[in-house]
Amino acid sequence: MKIADLDRIETRLGIALPSGYREYMSTRADALGGITFEVQGESRRWFEELLYLEADRLIEANLFERDPCAGTEEAFPNWSKTFVLIGTYGDGNYVCLRLIGDEKVWMIGSDCSLEPTVEYDSLADYVDAEIRRHAETPPWRPEPVLSSFDESCPLERRIAFYIHDPNTCIQPQDSDRPLTEEKLLQHGIDTQEIRACVAQIVAVLQGCDPGAIKAEMGDGQSEYGLLPMDIIHAPNAKVRFEGVAANIAKGFISVSLYGPKDKAPPPDEVGVDWVAFRSAVSRLLRCVAPRGTEVEVTDELTGGFNTHEQWNYNFGYKMSPPSRC
Questions:
Q1: Which pLDDT belongs to residue 267?
Q2: Same domain, yes or no, for 118 and 185?
């Protein structure tokens, strides 16, 4: 940051910058801009926001936060008569200096203490602390690639089922998208058993004859690479609810029963065969797990409640890998 840049800041903001800030930035800003870190193969400046290194960015931030509707102005009315913003921690927290008085680094903003707080005794102390933090920060590494079909992913997180009558989908890990029936078959997964289990889950929740419900896998994929399934009711199927849903993912099961207008009863008074439901869920989860995997579906975890004419009940599940003995 050159002397001309500092002069421009003063002119645009109508202030006199602290002399210590002018001296420090005119001699250190360029070097600080060379301190970088890598994110997803892209090199970024460590002080990009922590300390504004360009005059235009500093001017923009100060003018924006002076607006009567801005978060900083609402939290600290007339702050600009006392402070100049020189950087940000993000989330509405700004690093600033007093225009007149001490040389401490302060923090104000829309998401911090009700009073300005001292962060460091000087700008040099603040920068040195951030340089140390940069040195101590481990280098970026890409997230591990998880698969729905091997031990890279915990059993409970490999595949999720979002069973909604009439539209259902199977969600794999990102690396396995788009998911197709052929891909499931290639990994030794019995897709006919998946169909039978999904149909049974819907039939149990609807309280109807299991033979009156079919589940079919779609030919294509959804927009997000999920495998869609269609729930098909026989013409004579008699169901209790306008719709049912069972989301099975990451160790949790959420069941929704749509249509009732009265208060949700306790689980044992709903009229759903929860034993049969847990059995069908266990079968479904074993379909997509290694042979010998044990599945335990817990009793209902929380009470039911009404939300726009629906009853909701929550369960959990645990999956134990097969014994290696």
A1: 85
A2: no
